[in-house]
Amino acid sequence: MSITNSIKDFKMEVNQALVDKAVALEPSLIKNTVKPIGLVTIEKGKEDWEITERKSIDELSNISLGKGQSVCIDFGDHHAGYVSFKLKPVGSPPDAPAHLRIKLGETLCEIAEDSSTYNGSISSSWIQEEFLHIDILPNTVSMPRRYAFRYMEIKVVDTSPKYEIVIEDVNCIAVSSADMSTVSPLTKISDDLIKMDKISLKTLQDCMHSVFEDGPKRDRRLWIGDLRLQAQANYYTFKNYDLVKRCLYLFAGLAQNEGRVGACLFIEPKLLVDDTALYDYSLFFISCLYDYYEETKDLTVLNDLWEVAYHQAQLALNRVDENGVVRDSDDWWCFLDWHDELNKQAGAQAILIYTLKQAKKLASILGDAERKEKLEKEIKKTTKGAINQLWDKEQGFFVSGNQKQVSWISQIWFVLAEVFDTDINGQILDNLLKVSPRVDLVTPYAYHHLIEALILNNRKAEALSCMRSYWGEMVKDGADCFWELYDPKNKYASPYGSRIINSYCHAWSCTPSYFIRKYFL
Amino acid sequence: MSITNSIKDFKMEVNQALVDKAVALEPSLIKNTVKPIGLVTIEKGKEDWEITERKSIDELSNISLGKGQSVCIDFGDHHAGYVSFKLKPVGSPPDAPAHLRIKLGETLCEIAEDSSTYNGSISSSWIQEEFLHIDILPNTVSMPRRYAFRYMEIKVVDTSPKYEIVIEDVNCIAVSSADMSTVSPLTKISDDLIKMDKISLKTLQDCMHSVFEDGPKRDRRLWIGDLRLQAQANYYTFKNYDLVKRCLYLFAGLAQNEGRVGACLFIEPKLLVDDTALYDYSLFFISCLYDYYEETKDLTVLNDLWEVAYHQAQLALNRVDENGVVRDSDDWWCFLDWHDELNKQAGAQAILIYTLKQAKKLASILGDAERKEKLEKEIKKTTKGAINQLWDKEQGFFVSGNQKQVSWISQIWFVLAEVFDTDINGQILDNLLKVSPRVDLVTPYAYHHLIEALILNNRKAEALSCMRSYWGEMVKDGADCFWELYDPKNKYASPYGSRIINSYCHAWSCTPSYFIRKYFL
């Protein structure tokens, strides 16, 4: 995710006791040395970049590279980690430095496309391309940055007419705080779901580091929207409860102005909440805590973080007008999905109701009768507001904003918020699939909520079909991990202006494992 | 220097006892922290790149740089060393890495010209330009490579729309094995010579590291042609005898096939002689040893290295034909100077005689009568050969090769070899200055020998005038150190196809201090 709004007069409100608990939970990373499996040649095919030739990795030491020559190394799967290799000169003693360009890509397009032409909306600094001078040869090159990649291209910008180089002993120290050996492999389901699960697991694994990251290529940060889905998938796979707990304490301990939970956190060089605030993301602190408690029954954490969670509901309610409806605005105040034209009002209203209900259950568990009552009142008010102001009975859809926009995500969130009963919710979902409003879903994050809504409203077959036509299509398109963005109808799309900047291992896309393991075994 | 010939079936012949003596003499480098003095703006002037604006370095911390913006930092003088600086983000917390391009230049053209258009004959890997990604901000960037530079430009390739960067605490740890505090400054001579001496000293200092390097930017290697002149300048300035001794032992201990002293040595990753052999450079081992003994009267070194020195004379004599003349060939067998059309035969013959005479004196010092006699015989034979076959009495010049080429450098070396007496030598020099043959001198290395020849033949006024019109002109052109290549008539020339690859602090250009301090005080 990459957003450029900032809250005014931003400051961080630190609760050191909570931060200390988070710091104590910092995981050790599991390191695995991974060797590449082959060499590939990438060329433009009829539709897209293709691998047109494969060679054994054993060939690498037979290839000497001079000025302008390159080799593309395939690690066989996606990894997040640290790369090293040996450079051996051949010919005369090296009489000039070796100057290399190294590109690392999660996908072929990142290797094959000319990154100098990138002119997208987010920083080109995310492109995994380095230029290195190696003064002394032979040498071992240990690249200091962590990369997310499957392919690594090494190109000789220049050596000298007197020598060439040979590359040997290419290694990746892959890192993650997820232990894949703890997850039982699936067997008794169809092969395509087994594959989908495997890719989901890999996606989640490569996003689990010191915190749950949104993507190991980009933004490499703890976003609460991603955290919520990662934690849910984690409960059915790696069961790394401490990492969820750590992230919850971090968000609670590092708040923004007025005690608002920020949309994302930075871990280095020091713990820091970003100045981005999003209406839905702050509310999702309640969801994350609710889900965590439901999974672990950990009352200590619930007691520690209840105040912060409840406060998010209070802050969100400040935006509710006299009719019980969340006020709309033109700025980047709520996320929901990456659709350019999406109006956020209805989705925000639904998420408010959804999280108020979770908060009410937490109040009940804690025996906090006063707040439970208050929340109940607000749930009624906002539910009434939603039905009176946003529900268009004639269309059978919720509308959003001044233009009364009908979007997929608005319907999905109102279904999840259970404003109506299962019958009406089912009708809304059927209607949605039939009518297919123009303002559709553009991210796996949004698709996740569609699948969840279908399953919870007795439409498992439709959910499965939808998973197959979305994540399944990504698998057919060669995904090693699930991608940040995917539109089966427009596979080269990017909201950022170029797909080479997209993240191809993205936390919010990892939930097929959650669905398969929770609902389809 | 940069040459691409290699000897066939190259192998290294190691004399470990001599190498061990060299290793024991490895100097500690003197480190000086240098701070930049200002910020400069470089623009294209009428003739060349110019500094059009200067600001105090104190302004640096007031400048925040966003995408595409840059700042050029002036260190006030040439340095060879290691650069570090602090990067501080301003604005929102950095939500993307900072991607920087850093150019370091000894001169303005290296900063101002687009290095991507470089298409010269030697490796572009020598261009001091780096691209860095800084993931964590704030941060201290300590660049691991050693650079030779006065100017450093830092350009932001990209940050993100949410933040910019401020650069602070820019430092250079300048390194050298020369101790400037041991050299007495000059006072009682004219200002232009004082300045010329100062620049020569800086040139020599910045070329003195673990060995005498040819240039700290390029090739950063021990070439024997450079060593000979550096050692001579060193005797009148830093008097670092151990460094000369170390280099002599290295050349003697790391020979090529047949015990030939190589043209240059590599120090890292291990001690290694290059596979380049040059007729004149191998013979200059004798000169280096002779000069060292004359300066130090160190008989131990002379005894240790006499065999190797004498052997170079023997190898060189293998190329002498029955007429006592060195056989010519078309390959890159002898250096002399960087003139494309230069025929090397006459110069090689003169250098053979010059070094045979030095070898004879060394044999005499060592009481090696047999070799002294043998050398005397060879001197007579080659001198006779030179006069009979190469001297054109009518023109008053020595000719070279099949085409009987008359070049400046051939005359100069025959004068230095004292084939004729001072009277005739004087006439040759006068004739040379008057006639000015087309195949002229193109490097300070060649000019050095002209100056030496003039001085030794009672033409000190002409020598001084020549120093002023050559090195003096470089000073006027803004040299901080003396350049590898300089043609006052064509200031943008480079034998490599682009002046951005030239070395602007070059060992063989440092000899004005030698001349001034030896002959003009």
UniProtKB/TrEMBL annotation, chains A, B:
GO terms for molecular function: alpha-L-rhamnosidase activity. Residues 194-517 form the Alpha-L-rhamnosidase six-hairpin glycosidase domain. Keywords: Glycosidase, Hydrolase. GO terms for biological process: carbohydrate metabolic process. It comes from the Bacteria. Residues 46-173 form the Glycosyl hydrolase family 78 alpha-rhamnosidase N-terminal domain. Its EC number is 3.2.1.40. It is an enzyme of class 3 (hydrolase). InterPro entries: 6-hairpin_glycosidase_sf, 6hp_glycosidase-like_sf, Bac_rhamnosid6H, Glyco_hydro_78_N. It holds the Pfam family Glyco_hydro_78_N. This is Cellobiose phosphorylase.
